[in-house]
Amino acid sequence: MYPIVKKERLAPEVLLLEVEAPQIARKAKAGQFMILRVDDPGERIPLTLADWDAERGTITLIFQEVGVSTTKLGMLNEGEAILDCVGPLGHASEIGEYGTVVCIGGGVGIAPIYPIARAQREAGNRVVSIMGARTKNLLFWEDKLRTVSDEVLVTTDDGSYQRKGFVTDVLKLLLDEGEHVDIAYAIGPVVMMRAVSHLTMEYGIHTVVSLNPIMMDGTGMCGACRVTVDGETKFACVDGPEFDGHKVDFVGLMKRQQMYLGQEKEAMERMTGLRIGDCRLRNTK
């Protein structure tokens, strides 16, 4: 059992849990993930590590409540415990002296981009971080990201905070203004990572993306997280989760992510007793 020592809501449907997991905290590196189970019948949930404290023996997890398993995870409170936590898994980010590194986080992807930005800056790089979300109230960790970045640029799709537009708009403006970028990291929705990769390809900038397709066992045994990279089949859990964004078959990846939407919808309907999309008046008396 892994006790929850802190719970915080960062944005609507986005939660932070700080969990006691000393063995994971001692070995964790930027870019790695872990897999947890809320309870015995629960499915495995892969989450990229957002932060960790080796001395306190804790790891920080940030997730969005989008299905039955993450909803159940969000129901846990401080003092309660997660049944299983396994990790750290996957290859760590390659950290080196590159020069200027751009770290791009979209939505919940802001969380796993933080330790990468921190590690790259500790390695002596100039770090420019770009963070984006659909609207202001979905943004989080701006102040935290500023502590590990030389510059932070913020954008919202609707213009409710800072710049209006997408992270690719900010990146393009940065490049067109003459900023020399040696390597870029992008973490967020697949469509965002695809857009960033297409843009950086035009400028010849090596780009690393962290893929989060469907994972089950996290050991490469099930094959659920197959992705095509440079024409070869890879497993995101054991070969990644980071890959060269210019070589990823994003079209195939996006199709795989749609495979279980029907089952996920049915599971939520069973859990809530409501059909997704239904609007029912509640008795407020």
Key traits:
Elongation Factor Tu (Ef-tu), domain 3, five-stranded antiparallel beta sheet, 2 domains, disordered C terminus, 28% helix, globular, single chain, 285 residues
Describe this protein's structure.
The protein is of the alpha/beta class. The chain folds into two domains: 2-89, Translation factors (Elongation Factor Tu (Ef-tu), domain 3, Beta Barrel), CATH 2.40.30.10; 93-205, Rossmann fold, CATH 3.40.50. The protein is built from nine helices and 17 strands. It has helices at 22-27, 68-75, 110-122, 142-146, 167-176, 190-203, 236-239, 250-257, 261-272, and strands spanning 2-11, 14-20, 33-37, 45-48, 51-53, 58-64, 81-82, 84-89, 100-106, 126-133, 151-156, 163-164, 183-187, 206-210, 226-229, 232-235, 242-244. The strands form four sheets. It has a seven-stranded mixed beta sheet with strand order 12-11-10-9-13-14-17, sandwiched between helices. It has a five-stranded antiparallel beta sheet with strand order 5-6-2-1-7. The longest helix has 14 residues, at 190-203. It starts with a strand and ends in a 13-residue tail after the last helix. Residues 275-285 have low confidence and may be disordered.
